């Protein structure tokens, strides 16, 4: 939701099947992780996504994409070979 626009905590609550307090607690965790920013406008706390931090994480994870693709492809090959051998022994 926050990727599309900023929302107050009260506006976020109906989108989830948890209480206002629970949403507020989740927002605090995301704020501590610097994934969102919160601006206080009177009684309203407006939350905005901090996309810059997510971009840094995405770029860092991307450095491992080739490594994991190779490993998962190798695992898939082993599983397929095991299935083939299992079918031959029946």
Protein described:
It is built from four helices and three strands. The chain is an alpha+beta fold and about 90 residues long. The chain has two domains: about 5-50, Arc Repressor Mutant, subunit A, CATH 1.10.10.10; about 55-90. The chain has a three-stranded antiparallel β-sheet. The N and C termini lie far apart (about 50 Å). The model has no long low-confidence stretch (mean pLDDT about 95).
Structural class: alpha+beta
Residues in helices, as a percent range = 55-70%
Q: Name the CATH class of the largest domain.
A: Mainly Alpha
User: Order of strands across the widest beta sheet?
Assistant: 1-3-2
Strand portion, in percent? 15-25%
**Which architecture of the largest domain per CATH?**
Orthogonal Bundle
The CATH topology of the largest domain turns out to be Arc Repressor Mutant, subunit A
Average pLDDT reading: 93
User: Rough shape?
Assistant: elongated
The CATH fourth-level homologous superfamily of the largest domain:
Winged helix-like DNA-binding domain superfamily/Winged helix DNA-binding domain
């Amino acid at each position: 939701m926050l990727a599309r626009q900023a929302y107050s905590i009260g506006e976020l609550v109906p989108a989830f099947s948890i209480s206002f307090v629970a949403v507020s607690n989740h927002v605090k965790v995301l704020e501590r992780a610097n994934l969102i920013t919160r601006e206080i406008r009177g009684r309203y706390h407006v939350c905005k996504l901090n996309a810059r931090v997510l971009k840094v994480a995405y770029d860092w994870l991307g450095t491992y994409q080739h490594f994991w693709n190779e490993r998962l492809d190798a695992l898939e090959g082993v599983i397929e070979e095991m299935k083939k051998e299992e079918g031959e022994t029946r």
